[in-house]
Amino acid sequence: MMYINGFSAINTLTKAGENELSLEAGFVAVPFKRQAYQDYKNYIKGAALRRMSPSVKMSAVAAQQVISQANHKNLNGVIVGTGMGCKADSDAFLEKLLEDETLLSPTKFIQSTHNTVAGQLAILLDCKAYNMTFVQNSLSLESALIDAQLELASSEEKNILVGGVDELSPKTEEHLQFLHPESTFNFGEGAHFFMVANQKYNESVAQIKSIELVSELKAENLQTKINEILERNKLQINDIDAVILGIDQYLDNYYGILQETFHNSAVYTYKNKIGEFYTTNGFALWLACYGFKNQQIPTEFLYGKTVGKRLNNVLIYNQNNGKEHSFILVQNL
Fold first, then answer.
1. Which of 85-89, 101-105, 163-167: highest mean pLDDT?
2. CB 82 within 8 A of CB 132
3. Domains within the chain, CATH numbers bracketed
4. Percentage helix, strand, coil, to 5, in the chain?
5. Averaged pLDDT of the chain
6. Phi, psi of 259, deg, nearest 5
7. Inter-residue contact 213 to 325 (CB < 8 Å)
8. Can you tell me the distance from the alpha carbon of 330 to that of 28, in angstroms, rounded to the nearest whole number?
9. SS3 category, 33
């Protein structure tokens, strides 16, 4: 069993220290949605703050918020998922390499590797336990969650910090504009972290019942996959109170199938508010936890009719251009 005892988000819709939504920011139609300026000084010392990349800053603040919520002193591991890593530092290192490869400083290279975030969090939180980073495109966060699930199954009591983070950089923006010149969709950035445990505490807000990953799945087989997941968890279609979909501008036939299947459930979407990035599904999980805590998901995320049902079971579904399908089933406590 995997319980969520704390959840935090840093993105275009949230502010450091608040863990609440600022919805007006999500309605700005811009190609690239950067997280708004955040005052990190209460969380990170000035000298360290200047050296940190955007990914490390966002993650450090989100992680500290989660630990404060969970109210646990023992941290038994840090697991991070990221699609691009510390992209700004990677770009800086490669630019210096092109200028003069004989005068390279190792600092930018050290800070640019994908496992930088997990390493920096371990130092910041004084965690000398398990430390892992997963780089699996749009399945990066889900892979981290599965690894946490395995870790929790191997011990009587454990608390693990799990999160996903990706950042935008000027070079990334240029690359995305080149690849998608006619795109009307928004790209974004953010960090989403969760404290998970194999024990239920007073602070627990949800239980992750199931995480399913499928590399390739034809649209005609999607219904069968959903039925398998529900059957394994002894649920019926009508038991799903809400579905959160990673709807983008491509391949709506997948999402259309889920809308039709769960026609008695409320359907929500989020990428049009925070943008698209490899670990954007972290916000969907954060939104489910937010909904459980407040017993409602803001109507601004609604993608269809309102269904007046108490939130007990939420299914999160995302895919990337017809590949890398993920299903996360979350249950209220």
1. 163-167
2. no
3. 2-197 (3.40.47.10), 206-332 (3.40.47.10)
4. 40, 25, 35
5. 86
6. -60, -45
7. yes
8. 30
9. strand
* Partners of 330 in the β-ladder: 208, 314
Which tokens belong to 124? 């910041």
Q: With contact defined as beta carbons under 8 Å apart, do 208 and 75 qualify?
A: no
Say which residue the tokens 């819709």 belong to: 13
Helices (H), the chain: 46-51, 54-70, 87-99, 106-112, 116-125, 140-153, 170-179, 222-232, 252-261, 271-274, 281-294
Is a pLDDT exceeding 70 seen at residue 40?
yes
Distance between start and end Cα atoms, the chain: 13
Is the pTM higher than 0.90? The answer reads: yes
3-class DSSP state of 310: coil
| Sole residue written with tokens 């529900």 | 230
pLDDT digits (tens, 9 = 90+) for 188-226: 889 999 999 999 999 999 999 999 999 999 989 999 999
Q: What are 277's two structure tokens?
A: 């990035």
Query: What is the 8-class DSSP label of residue 269?
Result: E
What is the DSSP-derived secondary structure letter of residue 61? H
Contacts 24+ apart (CB under 8 A), 118-122: 118/78, 118/79, 118/80, 120/52, 120/56, 120/59, 120/60, 121/59, 121/60, 121/63, 121/78, 121/80, 121/161, 122/78
Per DSSP bridges, beta strands 190-197 and 159-166 are antiparallel
How many CB atoms neighbour CB 239 within 10 A? Answer: 14
Tokens 């950089």, residue?
Answer: 169
CA 328 to CA 318: how far, in whole Å?
Answer: 9
Residue 34's nearest CA partner among 173, 134, 135 is 173
Across the beta sheet with 2-10, the strand order is 130-134, 77-81, 159-166, 190-197, 2-10, 206-216, 323-332, 313-320, 242-245, 266-269
